[in-house]
Design brief:
The chain is an alpha+beta fold and 276 residues long. The protein has eight helices and eight strands; from the N terminus they run βββαββαααββαβααα.
C-alpha cells in the first residue's frame, strides 16, 4: 500500500472492533483524515497514547479502502497542563469537535488552520488569560475562515454604525448584530403582515426575531475578540468582565450551532466545568 507522512492533531475518535480505534485527525498537509490505529485499545499499547484526543503527531499513513491506516506515529506535542484544568480542557475539546465538524470546509487552508489550531491549544495550556476569551477569539477566527464571520460593528440589516445605545441583539439567520430600530420596525412589520395576509396582500417582513439579546458590555467583548485584541491575565479582570465574556461566548456558541445544524456535544462538558 502507498504511504505518506502528515503532521496532525487528533480531533475525534470512536472504537472499531475489539481493539482498534478510528481517529479523525486534522493535518497540515491534507486537512481532515480518518485513520485506523490498530490495537490502540489494548492495555499498554504504544499507539494508544498517541491516539488520544488533542495530541499532535507525525504520522506515517498507508492508504486503505475506507480509512487510512497508521503505520507509524511520533508524538510531537501533548499539552500536559490541559489535563489538570477541567475548564481549559473542556474548551480545547470544544476546539477539536468544531474542527471535526467543519474540517472539510477548512481543507483548502489546511496548513494555516493546523498552525492556528496548535497555537490555540498552546494558549489554553500555557496562558494565564481568561480561557473563555481565548475560546471566543478561536470561534470568531474559525467563523471568518469558513466565510461565516458575524457582522459586529454595523447593523447587519440596515448597515448603520452600532453604538452602545443602538444594540438590540444577535440574529443567527442574518449573521450579526441588529440595531434597536430595525428590531422594533421588524416587530411592527410583523403585525402589518398579519393584516395584509387577511386582505390577500403579501409583503416582505423585516427583522422580527432576535436569537440572543446583547448588552453593550457583551457587544464590546465580541468586537475586541473579533479584532484579536489580547486579553490581560485572568486574575486582573473584574467579575463583570468575565461574566460578559462568557455571555459573548454563549452568543457565538449559539450561532455556531445554528451554522452546524446540530448540538455541539462538548458544550455539555464545558457547562459542567464552569459550574461552581
Amino acid at each position: 500500500m502507498p504511504t505518506y507522512s502528515v503532521n496532525a492533531v487528533n480531533v475525534a475518535s470512536f472504537p472499531l472492533g475489539e481493539t482498534d480505534k478510528v481517529v479523525t485527525v486534522f493535518s497540515a498537509e491534507r486537512g481532515l483524515i480518518k485513520c485506523v490505529a490498530k490495537g490502540a485499545r489494548k492495555p499498554g499499547s504504544k499507539i494508544g497514547g498517541r491516539a488520544e484526543l488533542l495530541n499532535v503527531n507525525k504520522l506515517l499513513l498507508a492508504t486503505g479502502r475506507t480509512f487510512e491506516i497508521i503505520s507509524q506515529a511520533e508524538t510531537l506535542e501533548t499539552f500536559p497542563k490541559l489535563r489538570g484544568d477541567l475548564e481549559r480542557l473542556a474548551y480545547s475539546l470544544y476546539y477539536a469537535e468544531l474542527t471535526s465538524i467543519f474540517g472539510q470546509g477548512l481543507n483548502d487552508e489546511s496548513s494555516s488552520y493546523f498552525d492556528f489550531l496548535v497555537m490555540s491549544l498552546r494558549y489554553q495550556s500555557l496562558s494565564d488569560s481568561d480561557p473563555a476569551y481565548l475560546c471566543l477569539m478561536f470561534e470568531l477566527r474559525l467563523l471568518e475562515t469558513l466565510g461565516y464571520r458575524p457582522e459586529l460593528t454595523v447593523c447587519v440589516n440596515c448597515r448603520s454604525v452600532l453604538t452602545d445605545h443602538a444594540i438590540a441583539g444577535f440574529h443567527f439567520e442574518l449573521g450579526g448584530i441588529v440595531c434597536e430600530r430595525c428590531h422594533l420596525e421588524g416587530k411592527r412589520t410583523k403585525v402589518t403582515m398579519r393584516v395584509a395576509e387577511d386582505e390577500g396582500i403579501y409583503e416582505t417582513p423585516g427583522v422580527d426575531k432576535l436569537d440572543k439579546h446583547v448588552t453593550p458590555m457583551v457587544w464590546k467583548r465580541l468586537v475586541l475578540a473579533s479584532a484579536g485584541s489580547d486579553v490581560p491575565d485572568a486574575h486582573l479582570e473584574s467579575d463583570g468582565v468575565k461574566r460578559a465574556t462568557r455571555a459573548a461566548h454563549r452568543v457565538i456558541e449559539g450561532y455556531i450551532e445554528y451554522r452546524a445544524g446540530r448540538r455541539i456535544k462538548s458544550l455539555s462538558l464545558l457547562e459542567n466545568a464552569q459550574t461552581p
